[in-house]
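Fresh eyes needed here. I'd like your take on this protein's tokenised backbone:
***
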Amino acid sequence: MATADRQCEVVVVGAGYAGLSAARRLHRLGADVLVVEARPRVGGRVWTETLPSGAVVDHGGQWVGPGQDHLEALAAELGVSTFPTFTTGAGVELRQGRRATYAGLIPTSDSAAAAEGVEAIFDLDLTAQQVPLDAPWSAPDATAWDEQTLGSWLTDHLKSPAARQMIDVATEGVFGAEPGEMSLLFALFYLHAGGGLMNLARTTGGAQERRFEGGAQQMALALAAELEGRLLLSSPVRRLEYGDDWAVVVVEDAASASGAGGATAIRARRAIVAMPPALSARFEWAPALPAARTQLSMHAPMGAVTKVHAVYDAPFWRDEGLNGQLVADTGALRITFDDSPADASHGVLVGFVAGNECRQLDDRPAEEVRALVLEDLVRAFGPRVGSPVELVVQRWCAEPFTAGGPVAVFTPGLLTGCGQALRQPVGAVHWAGTETATRWCGYIDGALSSGERAADEVLAVMAR
């Protein structure tokens, strides 16, 4: 066992919303807690930046909608206000080289395909209700669902290529992955946890209903401030040793990134690892984790997503009767939203390059990616969008301590084979992170609830 340089009751690995939520709950109830974070900032997959133009953009998670009670309660407690996503006007559909506008959630240039796609979405959402949120592997048809992919289910249920394309775009936007990459059982669980695919894909009344004044990271900064210095940034974990009633987390010192070397060993009664399974697998574990937990980490890769913000002097597309939303069947940028501030002091379009398109552009020069994105925006909204004041491209797959996003994707067979290891403590090690949430998995709200659940587990053990 490593010699301890520091000691505390609970060490939390990861200062995203899950880790900060766990640490705050522990701290408020009197536990001696320390948080270690590999990045030089808090927030994890939530990161707000003020650009030189003055535009405030969220490079990661940013929306809140009905039912996200943990996130709404935190915002209310901290006095952070929200405003609705702009939806007035028509969306733009690019299909088979043609441009059309549409009203509502679903593009309707091919009405038969739209109807077939909506029917498939309803079928998925109804089936998802049969999956228990706390134990999806116990669903009546869990094995059959886990043996196939969402893609194979769509192939069996959809005849129209246009209907399939519509759901593929929605899937890429929600998961950052292709339908053929994920277990059908996992997809059904995820949809149930978020109120259904229709709910996850829409704005008004759905998961993208509102945004935060000043960005979504500010609440993470407030949580970190409450921890009163019990936070080590730029401190990636090298090794995690554990027993039944102790854990030692060995982190690189902040100076080691500049070549100075060195490490700090933190001994605690319990540890909470608050990050996606694939990232925790990078640690050196002593002893090795149980086989089910190791396999879970190996077969739950992160999705692939690049987020793009194009900033303009004003949201001029609104004057043209457009709401900034795009659905496209080709190109790098398949989905966009109006991301302008509440006062419309400048215009912002936010878009996503996800799944295969993201991976195909991963090794391309930044300027080439920017050019492709602008080309897609011009096809949708006209030549004026080709000259933004600023264009920022956030490649989450290139982030060493994130490795993709927005969420980990579970491959076929994983939930029924190893799912019970997702939240099951291993010795003194407990698990948090939005992937472990039973409600709003993959979202900020799920991260917050997972941290509170892990903190309660630790408090119960320490009380005994």
Q: What stands out?
A: The two ends are 25 Å apart (CA to CA). The first helix runs from residue 17 to 28. Residues 317 and 324 are 7 Å apart (CA to CA). The mean pLDDT is 95.
